[in-house]
Write a structure and sequence with these properties.
The structure is a homodimer. The first copy, chain A, contains nine helices and 14 strands. The first copy, chain A, is α+β, with helices and mostly antiparallel strands. The first copy, chain A, has two domains: 148 residues, PurM-like, N-terminal domain (60s Ribosomal Protein L30, Chain: A, 2-Layer Sandwich); 158 residues, Phosphoribosyl-aminoimidazole Synthetase, Chain A, domain 2 (Alpha-Beta Complex). The first copy, chain A, has a seven-stranded mixed beta sheet. In chain A, strands 2-7-5-6 form a four-stranded mixed beta sheet, covered by helices on one side. Chain A has a two-stranded antiparallel ribbon with strand order 3-4. Chain A starts with 28 loop residues before the first helix and ends in a 13-residue tail after the last strand. Chains A and B meet through helix 1, strand 1, helix 2, strand 2 and helix 3 of A and helix 1, strand 1, helix 2, strand 2 and helix 3 of B. Chains A, B: Belongs to the HypE family. Chains A, B: One of its GO terms (biological process) is protein maturation. Chains A, B: This is Hydrogenase expression/formation protein HypE. Chains A, B: It comes from Solimonas aquatica.
Amino acid sequence: MNDFSANDGKRRPRINDTHVNLSHGSGGKAMRDLIADVFVGAFDNPSLSALEDQAVFDLKQLGTHGERLAFTTDTYVVDPLFFPGGDIGHLAVNGTVNDLAMSGARPLYLSCGVVLEEGLPIETLRRVVESMRQAALAAGVQIVTGDTKVVERGSADKLFINTAGIGVVPAGINISASRAQPGDAVIINGTLGDHGAAILIARGQLALQAEVPSDCQPLHELVAAMLRACPDIHCLRDATRGGLATVLNEFAQSSQVGIRLQEQTLPLREDVKGACEILGLDPLYLANEGKLVAVVPGEAVEAVLAAMRALPAGRDAACVGRVVAAPRGAVILETGFGGERVVDMLVGEQLPRIC
Amino acid sequence: MNDFSANDGKRRPRINDTHVNLSHGSGGKAMRDLIADVFVGAFDNPSLSALEDQAVFDLKQLGTHGERLAFTTDTYVVDPLFFPGGDIGHLAVNGTVNDLAMSGARPLYLSCGVVLEEGLPIETLRRVVESMRQAALAAGVQIVTGDTKVVERGSADKLFINTAGIGVVPAGINISASRAQPGDAVIINGTLGDHGAAILIARGQLALQAEVPSDCQPLHELVAAMLRACPDIHCLRDATRGGLATVLNEFAQSSQVGIRLQEQTLPLREDVKGACEILGLDPLYLANEGKLVAVVPGEAVEAVLAAMRALPAGRDAACVGRVVAAPRGAVILETGFGGERVVDMLVGEQLPRIC
């Protein structure tokens, strides 16, 4: 397959087309010019300019002392492409960076596969690629290999992006959804549901004066700081589609433990809370794009929270619950009024194309 | 993000839905049931059942003696999904296996990111996933991590698949599009254009009695045999979109050499030749999905051809051209009648959504 690196990486033609057409996916000259102009210039790095259909790295550089390799993938179909606080390009880089980070890995290399709809303005593509470039730079990762497909008008909605990623997990880190145990504490790094609310408002489905920015951000430096404070973090996952409730149900089921949440400890923006009340949405299920959920040994809570709060991405970090022996596999919310209710997996769809 | 491994991997609910709906992309219960039923059962392996959002491997197992890691990605949007000789599932596995193989790598692990259109029959998805399972088994790779997105009816055409892949390049292999030099020979492993013709006929765009099967197949074992015969293979690339002409132009430009092809040596199926004549298509530009182009030192030609012909994927291997000093960056076809013409990069689109 012809990929981003399948061009000479030296001549950078500036294409004159204003919109994507089918020849941009042909494998021929138009595709190579699009890639050379739009992608290679933005993502410039030695692997991408090496002219091959795959990026190749020295294994020894990755680690020789018990490190492990992490590998993940995500496709992004968010609608609209641009929203307060980010766009599909930021999302595509940060989402995959975060999936790597949740294993404790240092994210290193990303791939980028795009599906373009015929007729997409080239300027839109340039904006998205520029966001990817900035996000990759900010996260310290390189986009080293890619692929471009074009489909006829009406066969895709504007632009979809897949990013796969690889990273290196330091020796001695053992994070898994199955390691939660009674006595552990549940920690999150900030307010819930910002991304979901941002998309909802950006779609015009909610007539709100306020503009809620997405929380889209990379979390690997926060994770590294948390691991320095407590190398024995038990579980870690980013609360994207399905929100906090979904992640906690995954932890409870995989670890066969109960999890009790304290409602009054959950950080929520006032405008997100308002939007949820108006629309009957539960912020526990709203998507986030810069929030993680950690399960840590009870005695490590203060050290982990202190480490988190020292970084912008962890400024609003809070301990929101605890792991208990029973009921196994269930998540219970303790409400402000002394009551409690089961927080189940999301059934049905709350908000399609959120990421 | 919730991925294929984000489920308990033990209970395998059989979903009752007959068609994909938006809740299958929600991050909630419907998505997890779809993944557990359709994907995890088919792709079953320890990494996928490890319940995490990323697959993690011991770096030491990958190599400690100068091996390198290869990383690639491709999105598949072929239309129709099913065609003689294969389907989008075979393509998604073999295409990425081949991109890894072209660096000399042993393909190891694949990711799988799908975009599903609301309303897609679940049975169609099952058939495609079964093809991916079979192709992965045949190629000796594991599909270790994944992602599922669902978009509204009309926002995508049925099903798109992205696969990224990683593999290990043995020490001492140094394949690159920039290594062709005068005196080298150009070798291909069989008939040209079969995949392009198969898709064309499957679309009903050509009323032919004959059914041409796609050549979709994995090529890594063929490459391994070629490297045993000649560890110093200079260039290697699979001739997919854009066909043989595109790959040779890439080699000629990257290496700053000329390439001369002998028309009468090019292997062509009679029915593909006929289809091209009727439609005015040039088989040099038609897509292949199981054909590679190698540039090898002149003295190694016979050894490489012998090694190739010993395997089914190389049965029709042939030396089709030679590398010359000039004209730099150009590909020249010597016709059967003593004439010659320049074979340029493809301009415009010959056949959209071929892969």
